[in-house]
Amino acid sequence: MTWRHAFALALSAVIVVGCTGGGFSEKVQQGKGNVFRYPLVTSPTTMDPGAVQDGDTIDCLQQIYEGLVGWGEDNKPQPRLAERIDIEDGGKTYIFTLRDNIKFHNGRAITAEDFKWSMTRNLQKGVNSPVAQQYLSDIVGVNAVAEGKAQEISGVEVRDPKTLVIRLDKPRPYFLGKLTYLVAAALPKEVVPFDKPMTETSQMIGAGPFKLARYVPDQIVVLEPNADYWDGKPEIDQIERPIILDASTRLNKYKGGELDLVQLERQDIAGLQQDPELSKHLKFFDRPAIWYVAMNQIAFPVFRDVRVRRAFAMAIDKEPIVKDLLGGVNTIANSIIPPGVPGHRSDAKAIQFNVEEAKKLLADAGFPGGKGFPPVELNFREARPDIRIVAEAVAGQLKQNLGVEVSLKTSEWGAYLEKWNQKTVIPFYHMRWAADYLDPENFLSFMLATYGPENKLGYSNPEFDQLCRTADMTMDWDKRQELYSKAEDIVLQDAPWIPIYFQRDAELIRPRVAGLRESLFGHLPHSRVRIASATGP
Fold it and tell me: Of 159, 388, 455, 498, which has the fewest CB atoms closer than 10 Å, so is most exposed?
């Protein structure tokens, strides 16, 4: 039994009271009251903010949990539970002064000690967080705690109940962006287990604008407003997040008035643009996210040969995939760093489509016409039609242009993440990386450097590493950008990733929904959302 299945069973036992059996026990009617209704496209992978790593679940949990800082509509970190941030020692010391009257959902006042405890807790081996050390490792002493060599984070000081001091190992110009991640959110130690994951709804107590009211695994998450929220009680009575895996079902429920917001698959957009009524609901949002195909050199040693990787990259024609199959909504990716992230370049040195050169490279690597190439499997997450479209197109082009047979394998999202985190399991995969903070480090160093915590595929280039290391610690932006640009050109030619497209979301949003706050990262927590009419469309 996987941890996710164990988690679901545990939650089922504690929250079945008050829910009717079978199907959607929370099915809603058109124009339902002062309730904001929009689906989760996959079951939450966890309800523990110390362990969450996927965007769909983060979107849900960011309503419940809050930290010292969070994203603003200007796409910059803004004070949240902290009211003031002072930076000293050339960017190595951060002093956070907490707001007055901030409380957990259980009514207990939040102090600086809660942040130190929460970060320490998330680093415990028993919590089994795939992200805590990665996002907190710039803080002095974090690695020692994560490795079991220390019990306290030496770089986190509780100066007094309202003052928290964090010291970094080196100046990190992107540190506040990393601190927005939920792994740094405040948790109450009297209800949250210190050395194991949360498994009961009674433990899921945060400080965000909404409280968890009900969670039925694989069916629904219901949130209610936090009357004690420091920035004012939210105006809506509930947020209902039915878990609906099928894209067609989600769209049909929106058309039937049962949902207020739904994210669209590309194949549905053209028809909706022609609809005289629903076209008025259609909104587009650029996101700092890249969809790519990755070649795992750990799981599939053939990919250690740069000629093979370059041949694969040259054999994939992105233009018909993005413009025709996906309807031209997204932007073709010819770099790693997306638009909206500082350092994005439209003239980066990406490998271009060239079938003849691709065939020559594969032949030079010992596989003329694909002969002798070992069986390889392209993995992707289930229940997302756009993802399947890209995977099928990539496999078809590799067969047509190189003679390489690529089979397809889909997995449930939680199981897919488990395999991806193991590094040695998935040889070839289609995946997304969305910015956690708007800095080139989050894409180049974090994902692709040898020392990068999210480098899951065994890519290593000393020249690339050195450029990234220097840029990571340089406070001057012009110098950083020059270094990252050189590094990006190197990794594009080495081709551990094949960039496919930069993400642009299309959503239907019902006119009755007002007050949505936007950033490049997506919809911000719904503390300002209003339902314009209890009976309107």
Answer: 159
In angstroms, rounded to a whole number, what is the distance separating the alpha carbons of residues 190 and 366?
61
Q: Which two tokens stand for residue 268?
A: 């549905």
pLDDT of residue 32: 66
52 vs 61: CA distance, rounded Å: 9
Distance between CA 312 and CA 404 in Å, rounded?
A: 9
**CA distance readout (Å), 536 to 32, 34, 257, 527:** 9, 11, 10, 21
Closest to 481 in 3D by CA, of 492, 494, 490, 472? 472
pTM of full prediction above 0.70: yes
Task: Report the number of secondary-structure helices (H) and strands (E) in the chain.
Answer: 16, 21
| Pair 123, 112: CB distance under 8 Å | no
Q: Count the neighbouring beta carbons within 10 Å of the beta carbon of residue 100.
A: 8
Q: Are 494 and 454 within 8 A, CB to CB?
A: no
CA-CA distances (angstroms) from residue 144 to 52, 123, 140? 22, 10, 9
The secondary element (H helix, E strand) that includes residue 289 is: strand 282-295
Cβ atoms of residues 265 and 385 within 8 Å: yes
Our measurement of the distance from residue 410's CA atom to the centroid of its chain's CA atoms, rounded to an integer in Å, reads 19
Give CA torsion, residues 395, 401, 404, 408, to 10 deg. 10
Instruction: Please write the tens of the pLDDT for every residue from 148-193.
Output: 999 999 999 999 999 999 999 999 999 999 999 999 999 999 999 9
Euclidean distance between CA atoms 186 and 178, whole angstroms: 15
Q: Which two tokens stand for residue 376?
A: 């390889």
Q: How far is 323 from 303, CA to CA, in rounded Å? A: 28
How far is CA 509 from its chain centroid? 22
Could you tell me how many residues make up the chain? 537
Task: Output DSSP code: residue 189.
Answer: T
* Percent of the chain predicted with pLDDT > 90: 79
| Amino acid identity at 54 | D
Question: Which pLDDT score is estimated for 254?
Answer: 97
Among the listed residues 189, 203, 204, 195, the one whose alpha carbon sits nearest the alpha carbon of residue 117: 189
Can you tell me whether residue 156 is helix, strand or coil? strand
| Separation CA 328–CA 334 (nearest Å) | 15
Is 268 in contact with 247 (CB distance < 8 Å)?
A: yes
Can you tell me the distance from the alpha carbon of 173 to that of 341, in angstroms, rounded to the nearest whole number?
A: 14
Dist CA 54 CA 352 (whole Å): 31
Q: In the block, which residue shows the tokens 């691709």?
A: 358
State how far the Cα of 81 lies from the Cα of 84, in Å rounded to an integer.
Answer: 9
- Indicate the DSSP class of residue 253: H
* Amino acid at position 106, single letter: N
Which of 1, 23, 11 lies closest to 47 in space, CA to CA?
11
Beta-carbon neighbour count of residue 492 at 10 Å? 20
pLDDT digits 0-9 by tens, 405-438: 999 998 887 788 788 778 778 899 999 998 988 9
CA distance 48 to 191: 13
Q: How far is residue 105's CA from residue 296's CA, in Å, rounded to a whole number?
A: 43
Distance, CA of 159 to CA of 531 (rounded, Å): 43
